[in-house]
Amino acid sequence: MKHSLKDWFITTRPWSFPASAMPVLASFAYTTWVCSLYGTSVDWVNGVLAIVGIVFFHAAGNMMSDIRDFKKGVDKGLNHMPLVNGSFTAKEYMGLSSALFIIGCLIGFYIMSRCGWPLLYAAAYGAFFTLTYATFKYHALGDLVIFLSYAVIPILGTTYATLSEYYYPALVLALPIGLITVAILHVNNTRDIQSDSEAGIHTIAMLIGQKASLKLYAFEVLLPFLFILITVLCGWLPWYSLITLLALPKAWQCARTVLNVKNTGLEPITMFDAATSQLQLMFSLLLAASLFAAAFI
Predict the structure, then answer these.
(1) 200 in a structural domain
(2) Among 1-5, 13-17, 176-180, 228-232, which is the least confidently predicted range?
(3) What is the pLDDT of residues 207-232, one digit of tens each?
(4) What CATH number did the domain enclosing 64 receive?
């Protein structure tokens, strides 16, 4: 069966890309701000390439995860999924995911040639979690892996790519960005507690139960705003970063909707991973904008 370029693109789940691109963008903005404070320069080429590279890794990881879920029967009944409805084969998925992974590696090697081989540490961990995420996800470790691979690792990797050193103070970004990113997975797992149980896999949502999972989600989307306020007051982030509070109404709406699920059933969160992705995009863009503003204004 012949597929259009749009069909191939959809298989990568492009709507999820902000989850990986935004932490890198925010980290790039952070290193730009830090360089402005010390009168040093930031590598803009590597910063842009880091964003592109992680998207390729993310796309490859999405497809590899879909292959594992399909073979394990996790997506059974989800006829909108290309592998489930037969519009694509697992072999086709594997071919594209392998190509995307190789391109991501090539971009990583090029960045490393510009800034130094120690970047390999972050790249190796990122590649490892890309290839093994599904395995961790089936054993209630998906939330931890997402936090590491979509917050801690890309943040540190971006600091090395743009500064030629691992700048650990940048990890101040990991908690606020990472929690909202993990919330995308967590609300999805909360919705799928029953189907995941039938498929024989385990998630944090399944282990703690629906009621506790809904409260945990609210915590994950609201705590980042308190954390930003604290870090600004401590001087770890510029005052400009308070503009992230503009995303608070969206987070509050998400939290209220989820906490009211106990009275209305799971229907309101059927597609709530998309709403949480929008929140993550809004929060991260505001944070990145505040850091760039602090650097240039």
Answers:
(1) yes
(2) 1-5
(3) 898 889 989 999 999 999 999 999 99
(4) 1.10.600
Number of compact structural domains in the chain? 1
Please check whether residue 225 lies inside any domain of the structure: yes
How many helices (H) and strands (E) are present in the chain, helices listed first?
A: 15, 0
DSSP 148: I
Q: Within a 10 A sphere around the Cβ of 125, how many other Cβ atoms?
A: 16
Listed in sequence order, the DSSP H helices in 39-150 are 44-72, 82-85, 90-115, 119-137, 142-147
CB 211 within 8 A of CB 177: no
Residue 3 lies in a domain: no
Residue 39: inside a domain: yes
Find out whether 87 and 1 touch, Cβ atoms under 8 Å.
yes
Give 139's strand partners.
Answer: 202
Domain carrying residue 14: 10-296
pLDDT digits 0-9 by tens, 140-192: 888 998 899 889 999 999 999 999 999 999 999 999 999 999 999 888 888 87
The candidate with the shortest Cα–Cα distance to 251, out of 276, 281, 286, 268, is: 276
- 221 DSSP assignment: H
